[in-house]
Write a structure and sequence with these properties.
The complex is a heterodimer of chains A (247) and B (368).
Chain A lengths: L3 E12 L2 E12 L3 E6 L5 H8 L7 E6 L2 E2 L4 H7 E5 L10 H11 L4 H15 L14 H12 L6 E5 L7 H16 L3 E5 L3 H6 L2 E6 L2 E6 L1 H7 L5 H9 L8
Parallel strand pairs in A: 3-8, 3-9, 6-7, 7-8
Antiparallel strand pairs in A: 1-2, 1-4, 4-5, 9-10
Helix pairs in contact in A: 3-4, 5-6
Chain B lengths: L1 H16 L1 H21 L7 E7 L4 H12 L3 E4 L5 H10 L4 E5 L3 H8 L5 E4 L4 H22 L24 H31 L1 H7 L4 H30 L8 H25 L3 H19 L11 H7 L3 H14 L4 H30 L1
Parallel strand pairs in B: 1-2, 1-3
Antiparallel strand pairs in B: 3-4
The chains are: A alpha/beta (247), B mainly alpha (368).
Chain lengths: 247, 368
Amino acid sequence: MAEQVIVCKELTKRFGDFYAVNNITFEVTKGEIFGFLGANGAGKTTAMRILCGLSFPTSGTATVAGFDVYHQQDQIKRNIGYMSQKFSLYENLTVLENIEFYGGVYGLSRQVIKERSNELIRTLGLEREAKKLVGELPLGWKQKLAFSVAIFHRPQIVFLDEPTGGVDPVTRRQFWDMIYEAAATGITVFVTTHYMDEAEYCNRVTIMVDGKIEALDAPQALKQRFQAENMEEVFYQLARSAKRSSD
Amino acid sequence: MKQLLVFIRKEFYHVFRDRRTLLIMFGLPVVQILLFGYALTSEVKNADIVISDQSKDANTERIISKIKSSSYFIVQEKQLAGPEIDAAFKKGTIKCVLVFPPQFGNDLRHDGKASVQIIADGSDPNTAKTLVNYLSVILLNYQQELAGGGVVPIGIIPELRMLYNPEGNGSLNFIPGVIALIFMIVCATLTSVSVVKEKELGTMEILLVSPFHPIMVLIAKAIPYLVLSLVNFTLILILSVGFLDIAVKGSLLLLFAESTLFIITCLSVGLLISNIATSQQAAMLISMMGMMLPTLLLTGFMYPLENMPVPLQLVANVVPSRWYYLIVKAVMLKGLGFSAVWRETLVLAGMTVALLSLALLKFKTRLE
C-alpha cells in the first residue's frame, strides 16, 4: 500500500453555528496530484488553511506529512510548500534575490541555496533574467518562478491555491507540465482550481459542496458515475444543490 | 536567527529600491527641519523701521547705530512725517517707528530720564510685541552703558533673560516637535504600508505558511525602520546643529536611548494600523491623518497645551509624541539628565508595551 501523506478523519471547522468544513474524510497518497474543487464558499480555503497549519480544526483528526495539525504546526510548515493565485514574489527584488529570500526563510544553508538556484535558473532558462527585477518579467514566467520557489526547499507536499487564475491557456498548459514534473519527483500536489479542464489533469479530485465532500474519485470514474461528458458537468450537477451563496 | 537576517536584508532592499519610501524616509525630515527652522519661525528678522530723530544728539546717534547693527532691524533712511507714517504702515512697508522727541537729549542729560515713542503695527500682534521687546532691550542696554555698568538709576527695570534660549531662537522650540512629528509619520506610515503591502501582494500568506514565526515577521519588519530612523535622527541632529545653531546640551546617549524608545512606540502604532488597514492607501491615510494631526496639535510645540480646554488637555496625554517632546526638550535644550525625565520615559514605555502587545495580539487573532 502506498504511503499516505495527508490523512483527514471527520475533520470539522465550525465558526459559531456555521460549519465551514463539515466532517470531511479523505487521504492523499504520496506523489499524487490531488484536485480540490468547490464553488466559492464551499469550504476549500478553510480546509486548506487547516492542512497548512494556519488554523486549528474544531474536531476530527488530520495529519500532514505525518504531523498532527493540532500540535505539530511548525513541523507541518517545514514540510510543505505553498503558492497562491497572487504569485507571491517580490516585484522589486531580482529573480535571484527572491529565490535566496525564500530559501533563507526555510532555513536552507547558503551553499544549498546557491547550488539549487543555479540549477533552477538553468532549467527555467532564466540565465539572462536572473539579475532582473521580478516586476519586469512576463506573467507566465513569474508564475513558473513562483511555483519553483514554492518547491525550492523540497517539501513533501505542495499546496496550490488556484495557481492558474488569470493566466492564458498556453501558459496554463506549461504550468501543468511543471506540476507533473514535480509529482514525478515524489512531491505530492494538492491543488484547488476553478478550471474544470484542469480537474481532468488530476489523479483524483474531490468536490466540496457546503462544507462536505460530495464526491472523491479519479476524474474518469466520476464522469462515468454521473454519466457526464466532462468534469464541468459533474461539477455542475453537484454544485447545483449548494445552499450556501458564494462569498 | 539566520532567517531573521535574511528577512531584514530583504526589507532593506525594499526600502532602497522604492523611491517613494526613500523620499518619505529622508526627504521629509530635511524639508521639515528646514521649513520649521527657517520659514516657520516666530522670530522676526530684518524688520523695516523708521527712526524719527528730532533730538539729533550724541545719545540718539549711538542708540541708532546700535539698532542698525542688530540683525533684527533695517533702518529706513527716509524720514517720514505723521501722515506718511500712517500710509507706510497701511501699505506694510514698515513694521515699526521709533520717535525721539526734540527734548530727548536734554532730558536724559539733566534728569537722567527721557521718553521715546515706539509705534508698531498692532494688526500683527505677535510681530509687534516681539519688535517692541527688541527695541526695549536695546534701549535698556544703552542705559546700562550710560550708568557705566552700575545700577541703572531709573525706577524698576525688568531684566529679561530667556532661559536656555537667550537669543529667543524660534527654531529651538520647534526642533523637538519636528523630530517627534517625523518619527510618527515615517515610522508609523512606512511600517504599516510595508506590512499591508505584503498582505496585498499575497506574500504575507506565503510567509505565514512558512516555518518563519509570524511574530518574527513583525520584528523583521520593524528592525530596518528602527535602524533607518536612528540614522534619520542623526541627520536631524546634524542639520539642527549645523544649520539652525542649536546646541545639544544634554547627554547624546540619553537622547538616542529615549529616541529609540519613541521610535519603537511609533513602529508599534504602525504595526497596529497594519492590522486594521486592508489596503496601502488606507494604511497611509490612517497613519498620516491619525498620527500627524494629534502630533501637530496636541504635542504642545505649535500651540501651548496650557491654553487648551481641559478635555483636550486630557486627550493630549494619550498622544505619545507629547511625552517624547517633553523629554527631548528637557534633554536637548535644557541639558537635564535622566532623573528629570524618568516619569515621561515611564509613560512612554508603558504606552509602547500596551501598543505593541495590542498589535501582536491582533496579528495573532487575525491568523486564526
